[in-house]
Amino acid sequence: xxxxxxxxxxxxxxxxxxxxxxxxxxxxxxxxxxxxxxxxxxxxxxxxxxxxxxxxxxxxxxxxxxxxxxxxxxxxxxxxxxxxxxxxxxxxxxxxxxxxxxxxxxxxxxxxxxxxxxxxxxxxxxxxxxxxxxxxxxxxxxxxxxxxxxxxxxxxxxxxxxxxxxxxxxxxxxxxxxxxxxxxxxxxxxxxxxxxxxxxxxxxxxxxxxxxxxxxxxxxxxxxxxxxxxxxxxxxxxxxxxxxxxxxxxx
Amino acid sequence: xxxxxxxxxxxxxxxxxxxxxxxxxxxxxxxxxxxxxxxxxxxxxxxxxxxxxxxxxxxxxxxxxxxxxxxxxxxxxxxxxxxxxxxxxxxxxxxxxxxxxxxxxxxxxxxxxxxxxxxxxxxxxxxxxxxxxxxxxxxxxxxxxxxxxxxxxxxxxxxxxxxxxxxxxxxxxxxxxxxxxxxxxxxxxxxxxxxxxxxxxxxxxxxxxxxxxxxxxxxxxxxxxxxxxxxxxxxxxxxxxxxxxxxxxxx
DNA sequence: CGGACTGTTGATTCGAATCAAAACCGGTGG
DNA sequence: CCACCGGTTTTGATTCGAATCAACAGTCCG
Lengths: 251, 251
Known about the structure:
homodimer; alpha+beta; Jelly Rolls; DNA-binding; four-stranded antiparallel β-sheet
């Protein structure tokens, strides 16, 4: 893996894990195949049996499941430095889709080299395991969000969580972050209808809690710039507590 | 760990992992401290920093989160042989409660001995990692359930999923299984109100899809015996596909 | 200019929550 | 043995949040 490719992964990993120099070098030596993926393209599909994991180097992606009657539920959003399908290392068949939200650069890492790395460097194995456990913690909070919160609280919670994660990797500051989601995308995350998401966002804007602007972009897809104006109030409204993100490295 | 204590764990682990004789012996040698926990008692609480993991030897447990305004959302149900808080091995602070649904026998295993085992036997480390990944897969399906399915489909899906898991460990057959849940418990799992769960169950019974009977038990708490009469129709109704449970061992 | 996607608005329906009360059931204690 | 009690299930009436349906406006793009 070239140093530049490893940067995103290492930034993310070291947010919540202690890695020593040898660990870092081992990761930088990982063989990797990069590929550009267009927005909205399926990176790995439900039912696939993958032989490699996808490192999200640039761009955003999401994982979602589709019910038999065609309804989509997004179960997670992914930001640079994450390996959204790391579970495929031990779960050979995908139980959901991994889809590019924006144009992405994906670094494919073979299961073989990851497994070898895990055996060679138990500390990295623990770190990777830990990232999948944090992923699960986020899934649990996501369940609470769709199961028990009102539409407004739910929406606020999602935006706060994304902001928190993006800020940790330097992609957000002062409540501002760019994320090219449509209201339909948000609806799929939240278990709501797109129409209702629209009304909820209007409400949040009217309350002066946030602003959303669509910046033009060079590409087809517009970029939504979210600005959380009153984080305190939003957190209060959403019942947001970042503890579940487990962002401090541990013993 | 005495052979009898290890049995439940090994039964569960070997459903979805290949373990060799040495692996089995290593697990059987794990030091373990057992403890009885009364129904409804908190085994590990949100915010706790545990130093050991809880093996559910006998009984049922669930994990849930409580929102600031006191609403409970259950995020998973646990059956004998599972280690519901295995994530605490790498996530030092609990982000949810682990609660005994029934009187339970819990086997506490220290993080130290588990970490030593993981290093000594990478195959077991992979197997344990895999169980946490299956746990996450179940969380994802749970999100879809509360996010996108109707109350009836949701309820049917939960019961089918529990039946499927219980049958795998020999605790259910022919659609029948005993589980001492109240309708409020189900409501907390489903993101519904208890009243509505009641009406949904009535509907499912009226359709001849299932029966629920409360068997008297020696203890305070009654035991609900569920009987899924028409699994095909229930699966159709719920959009249930057991693939996400990943019950076959893999490469 | 036309078309596709996205965002917005209004009218209406519907599923589920809420509120309230009653019936039920096993367990306890007088 | 029976009266009472707490937790649970059930029923009915009502409200409410969000979905649905339908149309229209805005924007980017070919």
